[in-house]
Amino acid sequence: MTSAGTVIIGTGQAGFQTAASLRSEGYQEPITLIGDEPHIPYQRPPLSKGFPLGKQDLASIEFRPAKFYADHKINLLTSERVAALERRDRHVFLKSGSRIPYDKLVLAVGARNRLLPVPGATLDGVLYLRSLDEATALKARLAAAQQIVVIGGGFVGLELAAVAATLGKSVTVVEALPRPMSRVVAPAISQFFANLHTTQGVKILCGATVTGIAAAQGKAVGVKLSVAATLPADLVLIGIGVEPNTELAQHSGLATSNGIVVDDHLLTQDENIYAIGDCATYPCAFAFNQHLRLESVQNAADQAQHVAAAIAGRREPYRALPWFWSDQFDIKLQMAGLSYNHDHIVTRGSADSKKLSVFYFAAGRLVALDSINRPLDHMIGRKLIAAGTPITFDQAADESFDLRTLAPKSPPTQ
Ligand code: FAD
Description:
CATH class of the largest domain: Alpha Beta
Mean pLDDT: 96
Helix content: 10-25%
Shape: globular
Structural class: alpha/beta
Distance between the termini: 35 Å
CATH superfamily of the largest domain: FAD/NAD(P)-binding domain
Bound molecules: flavin-adenine dinucleotide
Strand content: 25-35%
CATH architecture of the largest domain: 3-Layer(bba) Sandwich
Radius of gyration: 22 Å
Number of helices: 11
Strand order of the largest sheet: 3-2-1-7-19
Number of strands: 26
């Protein structure tokens, strides 16, 4: 009997990487890669960076040209939405009517924008950013707009603020919490980026709650705040996070809890169904095996490679160190590890020199590292955290101490 092979739902970072890695693992069975977007798989990070600035075009953000899929016998189905799973018979049902069998199924269905629950949030002139189509619309609207209010001072919001300011627009960022990016970085890093934006002309309002979007003739003309007058705006960009796409899994009886629940092999309760990337919550070795759902290229790509290896016959627990980056103006922020349970912070370098690292320790052990324009610290930090190599507070703080002398020789592995 011919094998039904592997079906992958979602053509984002995780779905694309699974298909590509299966072939590089030597997997010979059929691969079907299904996505509801009309485009061949592309990268999302440039959508809030080089793409709206006109520095990157569609061709430069595609993972591979269309020919790649034919050359590697990957059956790529775009503009096709999977409506349901039939786990007993191992089939997926497309909304368009087809039924596709699988031996192994990979849910790489990602996440969608969290919607702002205030009056006026669906007006013309209020935009979100997740997909290439949304980025294309945003780029066109940015060109015509003058006064932009960005709601949300997280990574995507701040990157968009930097883009808009670079394009010469008047920009205000509204953040509900006391400082930007407060959920993920130390106060010193937040302060650095707040100063950076301010010196580039961006206004940042923290601790401010949006109560509605003001309208005139059906269009957004301002953002209403609980504490101040309405901020005028001819374009409102919302970046307040995402919600995982769990419905397919949930309706087929798989466990979900802020993500599709998987084990340390990235398997759901069904031994033939994996879930990876932004949609999955997994026991993270770098967070005492607590279930976490991470939203990053590293997480999507590493989990995809891991699952491809497992399907190709090499099964082992997933144990990759989380890392992330953000580009704002000419500054690169790189993060390694997870800082949420830290009890001590050490800084290296200075904000004045625009070269600063923050080392996060928990019970004397390095658990995370944020670096601004210090790529070597980031690369070495990844190795140290992954290997659990001891480093003292003094070594971390002392710029004359060469961190490379501590680094394990081999690169961090999964
Ligand atoms: P997604 O990229 O969300 O892909 C899932 C795909 O599945 C989507 O195309 C979706 O439409 C499709 N889908 C869902 N349900 C179905 C269905 N039923 N049938 C068919 N298709 C379906 N990360 C970083 O590390 N660094 C960055 O600088 C960075 N910048 C970012 C900037 C932006 C603007 C955005 C949006 C994200 C950024 N990220 C960044 C995050 C990173 O891009 C994501 O974590 C990563 O793309 C997640 O990949 P994924 O494949 O898990 O999910």
